[in-house]
Amino acid sequence: MTNAAALDFDHVELLIGTVENAADANAKAVRNTVLSPRFYTTDFDAMDKLNVESVRTEWDVMMKEYEGDNNHDHFQRDAAFAEEVKVLMPQLSPEMRQEFLDFLISSLTSEFSGCILYNEVRKHVTNPDIKQLMTFMARDESRHAGFINQSLRDFDLGIDLGQLKRTKSYTFFKPKFIFYATYLSEKIGYARYITIYRQLEKNPDKRFHPIFRWFERWCNDEFRHGESFALIMRAHPELLRGVNLLWIRFFILAVYATMYVRDHTRPLLHEAMGFESTEYDYEVFRITSDIARQVFPVEVDIDHPTFRAGMTRLVELSIANAKAKERGGLLGAIGRAVTAVQAVFTFGRLYLLPVKKNELPADIRMQPTW
User: Fold this and answer.
1) Residue 141: which of 67, 65, 74, 218 has the closest Cα?
2) CA atoms within 13 A on the CB side of 191
3) Phi (first) and psi of residue 41, to 5 degrees
4) Which of 26-33's residues contact partners 24+ apart within 8 Å by CB, and which partners?
């Protein structure tokens, strides 16, 4: 099986590119690829019509949690932060530096994507429940993006967020697709951050940057955001049955596959933390699948041999596609077309695998106990 150790840096560099200056960093954030985080817009009128009365009790409790804002003082760099950066960053190899920068830029873009989407919904709706929720979530995501950007500035690579908002292209999603995709994004974000935090909590010698010390409370914001979309979907049960089960299945698989391929472009990053990329990803899949049973009646079988083989195949095809792109010319174009068809076929095989069915719990809210 292909794993992180099997990918040499030449392959990684093909997939993630290199960042040498602020212009490179900003260009990378703006660029849209299959693997890069996207910016979204949606049907604001439909969002305005959402009704959460059937989950009112849980909704009001959640709103009080947002109002309490237990992370209002969290995203501030302490005195030790700058000192750790000075000591640890020169120890990074050039290859490791590129992987870490890719991690920071994609994480910032993802956080800022949420900030923009939530803020746009807030501005375009009058529904007091949705407006209040979007205000709180935009606040959180703005803090997250800003905090990451501070770490990029340590490398003199800060992202111009205003320019990014103006120049990055936007993808239109119907509200239900926003709910499925964003719920999964927030929950998988929690699973990723808490898995890293727990690993480095046990192995502090492997914490090569101080930003990881902030991940525990940070990922609880992500968890609560996911809870918000879970309540919205449970308040509209039509989103969780019929043909929509096929869409849920699609989004779970798409989010998992994107994460798996992207993470396998960062083998040194995971190795530095004491992970192997495949092992790390399946732990994140497991946590996310456990959490998503609160709202999704189906889940993909992450332990099915065909699922695992398909994930590996998608990594191989991503590398082959990058090589064809670098080759250029007619042969390169043919190579890219062939790998794209093969990737669609592989994804189709994964999509047709049997899924597991879940009985939705009576109590919707969950606590971040992982």
Assistant:
1) 218
2) 23
3) -135, 170
4) 26/159, 26/160, 26/163, 26/164, 28/102, 28/105, 29/105, 29/108, 29/109, 29/159, 29/164, 29/168, 30/164, 30/167, 30/168, 32/168, 32/169
CA angle 351/357/361 to nearest 5° reads 135
Give the DSSP letter string of 116-136: HHHHHHHHH---HHHHHHHHH
Question: pLDDT tens per residue, the chain (370 residues)?
Answer: 345 445 554 555 556 678 888 898 899 888 877 777 889 999 999 999 999 999 999 999 999 999 999 888 899 998 899 899 989 888 889 999 999 999 999 999 999 999 999 999 999 999 999 999 999 999 999 999 999 999 999 889 999 999 999 999 999 999 999 999 999 999 999 999 999 999 999 999 999 999 999 999 899 999 999 999 999 999 999 999 999 999 999 999 999 999 999 999 888 999 999 999 999 999 999 999 999 999 999 999 999 999 999 999 999 999 999 899 889 999 999 999 999 999 999 999 999 999 999 999 988 988 887 8
The residue type at 45? D
Q: Output phi, psi for 172, to 5 deg.
A: -85, 125
Token couple for 344:
């669609």
Nearest to 135 by CA among 233, 232, 225: 225
Domain regions of the chain by residue span: 4-31+38-304
Give the DSSP letter string of 202-222: H-GGG--SGGGGGHHHHHHHH
Determine which helix (DSSP H) or strand (DSSP E) holds 308, and give its type and residue range. Answer: helix 305-327
Q: Helix or strand or coil: residue 171?
A: strand
Are 195 and 283 in contact, with CB atoms under 8 Å apart?
A: yes
Q: Tell me the two tokens of residue 36.
A: 């890069």
- Cα dihedral across residues 361, 362, 363, 365: positive or negative: positive
Say what the pTM is. 0.92
Widest CA span in the chain: 61
The residue count for the chain: 370
Say which residue the tokens 């959402």 belong to.
Answer: 50
Per the listing, tokens 């932060």 go with 81
Asked: is 4-31+38-304 a CATH 1.10.150 domain? The reply is no
Residue 164 to residue 173: CA distance in whole angstroms = 20
